[in-house]
Amino acid sequence: MPEGMNIEVAHKLSERDRADRAKRRWEEIIEILEVLILAVAAIATAWSGYQSARGDGSQSVLYGESMFVRRFIPEYRSAFEAWLKTDPFTDPAAPAGPGHMPEYRNPGLEEAKRLNARASAAFGAGTETRETADRYVRVRVVFALVLFLVAVDQRFRLPGVRMGAMGLAVGLLVYGLVTAATLPRF
Known about the structure:
Elements: H1 3-65, H2 74-85, H3 109-153, H4 159-182
Helix pairs in contact: 1-3, 1-4, 3-4
């Protein structure tokens, strides 16, 4: 083989080796980015689930505080029981409520108004807590989608497809993190 041809073959092999190294380096960088995205999304998913669960617990406590029958004073409870015996849910002639029953004498009307306001506030807080917990669940779904996209992204060998999927995953991750950061904590 002539010497000039040997140099040309060596040059071609060297170019291919540099291209392979550059491609491997690019793939290594992408894999590191994918691992980082997976880690952040996994932690954010777990944290959102924790916040959602805490919201469910808070909601239960707040709703429990708003239960009416448990707060009845004895005078009202007896009027309530008498009112229920009039079959008020089906008999249109029944009194409008326990307060209209002759058995009822209200010794603490002001206290009842205060307790009703407190119960309404607790119920409103419980509803707000449930809505916040629901928003955490939605953020969890976004984080789960990020995990899915990064996992699927790793199966593709075309750089454009991988970058597109990773770009979408990063965008969703940032959206989820910003949304979670602005939600109230429990």
